[in-house]
Amino acid sequence: MVRTLYSALMWAAQPLLRRKLRRRGAAEPGYLEAVDERFGHYTVARPDADATAGRPLVWIHAVSLGETRAAAILLKALRQRLPGMRLLLTHGTATGRAEGRALLQPGDAQVWQPWDTRGAVRGFLRHFRPDVGVLMETEIWPNLNAECATQGVPLALANARLSAKSLRGAERAGWLMRPAYAALRAVWAQTEADADRLRRAGARQVTVLGNLKFDATPDPAQLAQGRAWRNLLGRPVVMLASAREGEETLFLECIRSPAPQPPAQAATKSGVEAGVQDRVSSAVPAGAAPAPLWLIVPRHPQRFDEVAALATAQGWRVARRSAWGDTPPADAAQADVWIGDSLGEMALYYSLADVALLGGSFAPLGGQNLIEAAACGCPVLMGPHTFNFAQAGELAEAAGAARRVPDMAAGVAAACDLLADNAARNAMQDAGVAFAAAHRGAAARTAEAVGALLAPAAK
Fold this sequence. Notes:
Radius of gyration: 24 Å
Distance between the termini: 38 Å
Number of domains: 2
Number of strands: 14
Largest sheet: 7 strands, parallel
Strand content: 5-15%
CATH topology of the largest domain: Rossmann fold
Helix content: 40-55%
Number of helices: 21
Shape: globular
Structural class: alpha/beta
Oligomer: single chain
CATH superfamily of the largest domain: Glycogen Phosphorylase B
């Protein structure tokens, strides 16, 4: 009865979803691609899969960019474990879908996740008939989970995490969510704390396999390029990594001068240059490294233009990564603020930066993944809100790879202190690389677990 009411509401919401997609598509055209797939109608053929011949169809759902990157790590291990597998990759966002295209091989397929109506989910399962399904991290959909159980599709939640806040939400809607968690054939949690919360939410077969993101290997070419750019600049770089809305404003406010410069000193400068130098001098302690380049990498690409406009409006000389190729032009090297408006280049940015402030942690959003920064040898400063990656943050802090600060102002001050302390900064760099290496192995363990879910003929 409860799921029937939920299904009716999801069915009634379909026109609202179409309107939302049109609105999002105006800024991100990817949302206008193959819209009917979201409602269970497919022109993409089912991959030529045959579990009895060792070619199982493995369905992985990675809703957005971060989940798709985690899926890429798992997929590499899966192709080694199941060399004949075919991949069915689904997403919910345009950035996830764009990132996922690079993961496809001949014989694979990529479509949108079906909207969680019974009709759309049944259409999806009837059309593709996956041999096993893997949902990445947090994706729980009542109809999807229930229909997979009804149709005999073993469904697992991989790299699973559940914050205390999300658990409270799941418990409030326990009449709907407990059956959804219980319908999962397996749950592979990142940490013991996540496993405990997932069990309390209703999951049954819960195992701790670790965090897939520790198995990511930074792109060597990007690492080399970032270091080359740092040498070319000849000045330190402070990065706001994977920034969320509102954090860029805080960051720019914190690197501005809190008080005007004395007229006699300001007279030697002119216009915007004077303002920028005054701001930098207030942010960098006496005796520290040369004035830093401030690098902002927004989390969501639809905000690239907005963040660039924000920095420009405040009088900063701004350069955008999208405007050049392999080497920054001279005018970019002279800029005050860089906007990292490219996708798939985080390793480049982390290797370029001397220190990174962790986006999502300076607003109550739970923080972003700091593991990639550590693996690239970039010291991390975390704000107070890291509940989405609580254990990773605690372990990184204990290992000396990250430090916690109470707010953005303290983060900028701590970053400037690190610029002036080579020994402390080098120690954090080394600790980050060691920390990332010490926790690897989740990808192989998860690939083995996926193989164990397949029917005997697929093994």
